[in-house]
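yo

u said u wanted the structure for the complex thing, so here. seqs first:
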Amino acid sequence: MSTIAALSTDIIERDVAAGERPLPERSSWLRQDEVNNQATAVTFLQDRKEWLLAAYKKLSKLALLEADWDSYGAEAPTRDSIDAAREILRALADAELEPTSVDPSAEGGVCLSFQRGGRYGDIECFNSGGILAVTSTGPDDTNVWEIERSSVQLGRALSRIRTFIGW
Amino acid sequence: MANASEKPLPKYAAPPVVETVLGVEFAQLEKWGIPYFGVLWGRIKDQFPKFEVKFPLASQIEDFGKPKLPTQTPAVQFMTEPDVRCWFIGGDDRTLIQVQRNRFTHNWRKTGPADAYPHYDGSVRPAFQRAWRVFLDFVNEYQLGDVSVLQCEVTYINHLDVGQVLNSACGLQEVFPCWSGKTSGSFLPAPENVGFDVTYQMPNHEGRLRVSMKPAIRNQDGQEILQLTLTARGKPKGSDADSVLAWLDKGREWVVRGFTDFTSEKMHRLWRRST
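structre next:
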């Protein structure tokens, strides 16, 4: 059975709710190992972003954390959760969406959070491989949803957080 | 460039190279199918116990004809099964083999600050030679077709730590002699970011050297770097192993001499050039 494969990688599913700012297409998210035979992982800087540099340095520090870093028995972030967070940071940079902070998650993993006034959003990359997105204005108004590690789902989550935060 | 081959190759005691790539692109092996990745892995698993599946790389054959205008070709292809590329990774993460239906590549990469570049003649070339032999024997044994070599490639990836560069040189013009940083007027401020893509033709259409410099962040440690990549590609005289190795030697010479020409003597001292 033959299949037809679209070779253009720029075709991306669009499902952006009214009023949400669309995100850039995936072509700018490609990693170096997807386009050439380089095996050393780097992120090319299209535009120098100080916050992205700082966030990457923070991630490399999180990679050195040991278990029980919070003295409450939290797991240290795994390489997979850090890689996932790095991938999301790249998407954030393309989307011009700067996280307020990059922190280890008490539930094991990495948390990228966004805050403005009383509005809060975050994306948590867990050691288990799961990724959760959150928007909240308080305990009575919190939405949590799971996202898959795909550019489409990530794009939707970032659009939703950006709209919610009001950036 | 005249008589350059007669001069000894420049040598560095502390070169900034973090990765080498020796590769071959060949005509598609039509009989190659996904199960063969597993069969090949079984043969090399002792040495390359890990694998990762990647998107296949597009063909990158150097063309020496007239520049071609981009044409509107339909971006659709009929395939009997998905096309993939497999990385087979050594236990120490330093070496890996990349295989796809029309490519074979051997990489060495630095995994930490203590890793020293193992040098071409003593390690990189023999490692490629051994792995290429295994691949050719495998293709032959399973009668997957003739490996008709279209092109060889040598790539050296260098990481120049931005902090170290700024400490050793006053600016980019003291690292790369081709860059002056000057403008004809006074309107523009100092550039925020600088990158280069420069190509050089090897004589008699033997190949092409591509030099690329791009600002980047190294994922492993978050270090801000300038990635200087030198890639030599060209067609060997034949598809046999000797011809492939002879072209790789030529490509490596162009990469090393090109690297030396492209960077400043001030940086050569930092990298402890000896010849």
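The longest helix of chain B spans residues 120-141. The interface with chain A takes residues 18-19, 21, 23, 54-55, 57, 75-83, 87, 96, 98, 103, 105, 107, 109-110, 153, 155, 157, 159, 192-193, 214-222, 224-225, 227, 229 of chain B (CB under 8 Å).
cya
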